[in-house]
Hints:
The chain has 2 domains: 2-102; 107-242, no CATH class. The model has no long low-confidence stretch (mean pLDDT 92). It is globular and about 65 Å long. A two-stranded antiparallel sheet has the order 1-2. It has helices at 2-7, 18-28, 37-50, 55-61, 67-79, 83-91, 115-127, 130-138, 148-151, 159-182, 186-198, 203-216; strands at residues 221-225, 232-236. By secondary structure, the protein is mainly alpha-helical. The two termini are 35 Å apart. The protein contains 12 helices and 2 strands.
Amino acid sequence: MAKDWMRFYYMEPQPELFVEEVKKLAKAGALTKPECAFPMVIFLSRVIAANASMVELWFDALSDLAPDDLQSLRAAAWLSRAPEARAYLIARGLSPTHVPEQPEILEMKIDEHPIILDALWAHYFATGDHQAVRRIVSALDYMSDLGAANAYATTKKTEADKARALRDGIFQAASWSLESLMKEHTPLKEFCAELVRSGDTTPNERCALAIILSKLEPTIWHVKIDPKTSTASIAWTDPAQTT
Length: 243
């Protein structure tokens, strides 16, 4: 399934399935639907970057895709920044020269749009790059805005109120996705656990991440929140001692 090919690609890369899986994505509308097209483009761009010598073969095999699907595929090739991919597009007059060069996904601001979280996950699925996870974890710093989304309807709806509500939504999305995906991806869970142990986080990031880990491994991770100061006490035990 395309889902498995993508979600675990970094664990077992299968670039030989690229054409088959892109056709599946196109058939499902994943390359054109606004809510998922950008993350798909980011994922495909990373696969193309790692297999740039295959661009001509892949694009020839996918030449019968619908125009909108081809546009997303070409965007992925361009965003890969692979010289071979860009040369292929330029030679055929297909380079998006009218579009300003976009920053790398790892440099995009998460608070500008929640879809950046999905794009960061797409980058991670394709590469296993923990820098993407670290960027996602940074959204946990918005824990201070927890509840702002539900309270927005009763506010004066100022720009500040909107910003807090958006940050709350991003915080909740990041928390949910981290918890869900740690269940499936052991390397992800191990990286997040090491982040908490290292202390190389903000207090909000560390607390929120430890709470997630305590839900997944309650015999290992323990979090207590002081009701008066809201400070978190985080403790963990050696997993070997729980078996």
